[in-house]
């Protein structure tokens, strides 16, 4: 029987690649995100996909997503948290006081990377398949190395203890909870635009594999973690960054 897979941030990048990976194995995917047009285009490329535009950083958005999933499918088998970002694409005001800018940066990153994941998880907990449910978070190499902005790295790191506690709470129900920590992943919104070529070369040089990551690298890891083969793996962070987390 096909499983229901809910993916936040499923319209682009890693989230979309994950949706393709699950759909390729006959799973029913539901794409969540803030941008209606982006989601609609993504859903049109995946047979049978559903999509719902919601702001998951707000309780009402997470509640709406949970109500939609419960009404349409009853049970959620896999929950993938791919929504996030470092805030560069958000509206940014000019602050006269640097401290105000710092506060704004942290507030945006908390909303994008923590609240989107926590609120949706809490809203969907009672609808997760029991047993066999899977909850998967997108962390980052930044959570270990402090790379990128301090706010982004800190917020990704904050997901770890939340996921570990969740694994203990949901374990008796036969539900596993894990995280994946990518490094440089091209073909995503995160590493496009004005990303310096020199910095790209530096990040590639830090890997043991000598190459950039691709959305499919992460998507296939998420798919495996959601499979029966990974049923005894929980409360773990899987590094998908070519060994860059270890440094050179």
UniProtKB/TrEMBL annotation:
CDD domains reported for this sequence: SDR_c
The Ketoreductase domain, residue ranges: 3-188
Superkingdom field: Bacteria
Pfam families: adh_short_C2
Family: Belongs to the short-chain dehydrogenases/reductases (SDR) family.
PANTHER family: 3-OXOACYL-[ACYL-CARRIER-PROTEIN] REDUCTASE, CHLOROPLASTIC, SHORT-CHAIN DEHYDROGENASES/REDUCTASES FAMILY MEMBER
Protein name: SDR family oxidoreductase
Taxonomic placement: Bacteria, Bacillati, Actinomycetota, Actinomycetes, Kitasatosporales
